[in-house]
């Protein structure tokens, strides 16, 4: 089967292409930003016609959450309008479309894990643009949406790698302890996307996060522990101490009911995933 991955130079895209390249019988076309501008509908159509993949995974995205507040139209072009073009191109060749989305489509005011069919209510521009992309994918009969959150990996900037670097530069770190979510390894998510498509599960929304929950402070302390450092060097603080242009959801825990319905187990606990990813993260950070 032929896969086409957009945003192949990003954190998730890199891991997904690597996972597919190691699979027998799979052909993978990985397109970086310089290879394909997903906002160019004609270019999207031509690429899909040329390669005729069976599955397209759209990892291309505007991910600068704060910048989206000031540039929502530009973010919408990447996160929303481009997905319409991808869906149209997939429909023309009969391909499945997997759209990567985010916990930011919820307002973050809940206290129980968000179900896949819970009401969406994004609280910032980034969330609104990603929700537009979800709707475009789901309007296509072969469209999947995989929501993820607190993503980290070896390829690209992220919270885990930042904490690893700052641990060697500062005596103490103040990290917010009033935002709760699910740290998710991009390697695990890449594996799950391949499993989802291969399972024959019906199109729709799936939550692709590692199990369990913690706060940013809890995650930072776990990182310090793995580094062999005193986790007490990470001091708990509150979100209002770090004002940002875009509001962040206080609660980002996603439920995983649809995996069971598809006959797939939930992803492993975030602590286990972090330990599995650790050698790759450590080698990459110190390269």
Automatic annotation (TrEMBL):
Enzyme class: oxidoreductase
Gene3D superfamilies, sorted: NAD(P)-binding Rossmann-like Domain, UDP-galactose 4-epimerase, domain 1
Keywords (A to Z) from UniProt: NADP, Oxidoreductase
UniProt GO MF annotations: dTDP-4-dehydrorhamnose reductase activity
Gene Ontology CC terms, in alphabetical order: cytosol
Record-listed E.C. numbers: 1.1.1.133
The keyword NADP is annotated on this UniProt entry: yes
RmlD-like substrate binding domain segment(s): 1-276
Top-rank lineage group of the source organism: Bacteria
Pfam families found in the cross-reference section: RmlD_sub_bind (PF04321)
Pathway recorded for this protein: Carbohydrate biosynthesis; dTDP-L-rhamnose biosynthesis
Entry's Gene Ontology BP terms: dTDP-rhamnose biosynthetic process
InterPro entries recorded: dTDP_dehydrorham_reduct, NAD(P)-bd_dom_sf, RmlD-like-bd
Its job: Catalyzes the reduction of dTDP-6-deoxy-L-lyxo-4-hexulose to yield dTDP-L-rhamnose.
Stored PANTHER family: DTDP-4-DEHYDRORHAMNOSE REDUCTASE (PTHR10491), METHIONINE ADENOSYLTRANSFERASE 2 SUBUNIT BETA (PTHR10491:SF4)
Family assignment from sequence similarity: Belongs to the dTDP-4-dehydrorhamnose reductase family.
Protein name stated in the entry: dTDP-4-dehydrorhamnose reductase
């Amino acid at each position: 089967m032929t896969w086409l991955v957009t945003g192949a130079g990003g954190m998730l895209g890199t891991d997904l292409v690597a996972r597919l390249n190691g699979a027998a019988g799979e052909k993978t076309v990985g397109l970086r930003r310089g290879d394909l501008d997903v906002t160019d509908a004609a270019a999207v159509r031509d690429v899909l016609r040329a390669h005729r993949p069976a599955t397209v995974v759209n990892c291309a995205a505007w991910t600068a959450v704060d910048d989206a507040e000031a540039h929502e139209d530009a973010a919408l072009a990447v996160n929303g309008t481009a997905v319409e073009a991808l869906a149209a191109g997939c429909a023309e060749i009969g391909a499945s479309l997997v759209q990567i989305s985010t916990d930011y489509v919820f307002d973050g005011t809940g206290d129980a894990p968000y179900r896949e069919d819970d009401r969406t209510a994004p609280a910032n521009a980034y969330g609104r643009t990603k929700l537009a992309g979800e709707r475009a994918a789901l309007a296509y009969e072969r469209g999947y949406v995989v929501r993820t959150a607190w993503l980290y990996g070896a390829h690209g900037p992220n919270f885990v790698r930042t904490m690893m670097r700052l641990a060697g530069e500062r005596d103490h770190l103040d990290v917010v302890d009033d935002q709760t979510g699910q740290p998710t390894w991009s390697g695990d998510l890449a594996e799950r996307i391949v499993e989802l498509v291969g399972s024959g599960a019906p199109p729709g929304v799936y939550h692709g996060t590692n199990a369990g929950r913690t706060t940013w402070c809890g995650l930072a302390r776990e990182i310090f522990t793995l580094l062999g450092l005193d986790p007490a060097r990470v001091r708990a603080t509150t979100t209002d101490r770090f004002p940002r242009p875009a509001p962040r959801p206080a609660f980002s825990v996603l439920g995983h009911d649809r995996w069971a319905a598809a006959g797939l187990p939930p992803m492993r606990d975030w602590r286990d995933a972090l330990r599995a990813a650790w050698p790759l993260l450590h080698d990459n950070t110190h390269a």
